[in-house]
Amino acid sequence: MRLHRQGQVGIFVVGAVALQLALVAAGKGFLLTQLTMAAYYTLAVLGISLLMGYAGQISLGHAGFFAVGGYTSALLTTFDLGPQRARPLVSALEQAGLLVARADGYGGEVLAVHPVAAALCAVALAMALALAVGVPVLRLKGHYLAMATLGIGTIVYSVVLGTSWLGSADGIAGVPPFPLPGGASVGGRAGGRVVNYYVAVLLLSAAMLGLLNLVQARVGRALRAIHGAEDAAGAMGVDTARLKLGTFVLSAALAAVAGVFLTHYNGGIGPSEASTMKSVKYMAIVAVGGMGSLWGTLGMSLALNFLSLRGTFGVFDDAVFGLSLVAIMLFAPEGLLALEPRRALAALRERLGGAGEAPR
Amino acid sequence: MAELFFQYLMAGLTYGMIYAVVGMGFNIIYNATGVINFAQGEFVMLGGMIAVTLAGLMPLPLAILLAVLATMVVGALVELLFIRWLAGPSVLRMIIITVGVSILIREAALLTWGQGVRALPYFTGSEVTSLSIGGARMSPQVLWALGACSAMVALTTAFFRWSSTGKQMRACASNRTAAALCGLPTRNLVTASFVLSAGMGALAGCVVSPITYTRYDIGTGLAIKGFTVAILGGLGSSLAAVTAGLVLGVLEAFAVSVLPSAYKDAVSIAVLLAILFLRPTGLFAARVAYRP
């Protein structure tokens, strides 16, 4: 039996609720914090899954887009425009309701951009960057694309690390919570842990549903065709350039959204979020989860990010990701879940009813 | 002003030589396998790090020799363990594997040597010794680096042009099937290309380490720059790679004179992107034999 994608997402949500109840019942509610963070990282990883697993385009620079999102949001929501209040632009923004004033914890007041407006700016900026970079970069293939995206990620990293108003090595702290309708907010308050968990789960579910729709529709088939043979896809009338660019921008947008929310959740962001290792980590998760398997990637991403955030791997954290990347690519390039058990399951399913989907 | 110019020029040439050597390393492996080895920069780091450790136990020249040999063994292992037995792997897969290998080497280095910055002692004199050339002061180590790298380039060129193994490697690069049909041990020649390229990187890592220092994470930056140089210079000509390396090094040195030094990497990567965008069909598109 094959569930529809709404059903699959439904099961995921039910599972997430069950997990939350179980954790709280077991008195381990604190684990929800890492699960929430893992969910946000997963958002970024899903975008890369679409780009790498479906469209077959490699990116070693997605941590850069994540950081562009996070840093833009952090900067705009913490930069005090109070002293510039008299300026026409600032007062116009304030009139338009785009600025909010809040207490800064020292008895003073900070006038900064409203988090929602900042988030929109952040995602738009990341998408614009992806578009500007993607047009020339996506004409490249293989090694060139990998090196070019690695280069872009490195530029973002060295810029945030070397720019004093982006906090240099310290990053930006004191980012206010992101307000949601109904008085809830995405932020680091301990009391809001459960709410934040559900916000992340819902965001992830929505993104998942959208991506599942996308890959099972015409676009998805076209992307797989590009992965299989780009020239052939082009010859069949697939607008390969536009699709690749669209996928690239979409994946950058997802990374930026993840960056924005995680920054609000953590109350800050540091340069390590932009590091090459992060990009490689995302890629490793997609590889482990399976190229072209969104659910596999989602599951692996939640699990691996959670373990990583819990510090399970200790000082070997990066090594674990590097090792799994190499091992998967050597022994199971289709991903862990594509290994024998799955094939055996599919064969079994076929024998029982013939209604199962043939293994790809 | 002229002295300052000369000073930047010499600094640029020193870095440029390293980029040139890394770029040649890329070329050698790419020629033999069609793979861009993303772990190329790690060889430079390993050479420097191992030499620093060994230098505490034995005379400097011996330490450097052993470090280069050890890195060559690592190069051979990388090929034997991760590349050799894959049957017709896709480019995407090879990229990911070498990226993973680079992470593994880097993490191993981090666990072995920690996060500290290390350096070999100066080969001659000390950090305060300086020669005056054209009014600019510079360390004799700069001459060591320039000399060693130039010698390496010349020797590699001669190796590919005249030695039997070099010729076999060129034949293998030109047409692997044909080379195999002629009875050449193509697989071993591929391993040899990894060994050669690792050794070159390691030696470069040793001679510059007193000036530029070495740290577990210098590999990525070097890889990007070496790749830039390999593309900029085009394939098949080590002389072009050297020229490109020197140009990039000098460009970087002068960029640092006007920009904050944190943006140094950004400059050379911008150069890489510009080249990639202006010559998107790639200088690697034609797989030609290694013609030094």
Kindly estimate the percentage of residues of chain B that lie in beta strands according to DSSP. Answer: under 5%
| Run of helices and strands of chain B | HHHHEEHHHHHHH
CATH topology of chain B: ABC transporter involved in vitamin B12 uptake, BtuC
Strand content of chain A: 5-15%
Distance between the termini of chain B: 38 Å
Q: Terminal Cα separation of chain A, in Å?
A: 17 Å
The outline of chain B comes out as: globular
Over all CA atoms, what is the radius of gyration of chain B? 19 Å
Q: What is the radius of gyration of chain A computed over CA atoms, rounded to a whole number of angstroms?
A: 21 Å
Low-confidence stretches of chain B: 280-292
Q: What is the element string of chain A, with H for helices and E for strands? A: HHHHEEHHEEEHHHHEHHHH
Top-tier CATH class of chain B: Mainly Alpha
Reading off the top of the CATH hierarchy, the class of chain A is best stated as Mainly Alpha
Description:
The complex is a heterodimer of chains A (360) and B (292). Chain A is mainly alpha-helical and 360 residues long. Chain A has a single domain (5-352), classed as Orthogonal Bundle (ABC transporter involved in vitamin B12 uptake, BtuC). Chain A has helices at 5-25, 31-54, 62-78, 88-95, 115-137, 142-162, 193-216, 218-228, 230-235, 240-266, 276-289, 294-310, 317-331, 340-352; strands spanning 99-103, 109-113, 172-173, 178-179, 185-186, 268-269. Chain A has a two-stranded antiparallel ribbon with strand order 1-2. Chain A has a two-stranded antiparallel ribbon with strand order 3-6. In chain A, a hairpin with a 5-residue loop joins strand 4 (178-179) and strand 5. Chain A is globular and about 70 Å long. Chain B has 292 residues and is mostly helical. Chain B has a single domain, classed as ABC transporter involved in vitamin B12 uptake, BtuC, CATH 1.10.3470. In chain B, strands 1-2 form a two-stranded antiparallel sheet. In chain B, strand 1 and strand 2 form a beta hairpin. Residues 280-292 of chain B have low confidence and may be disordered.
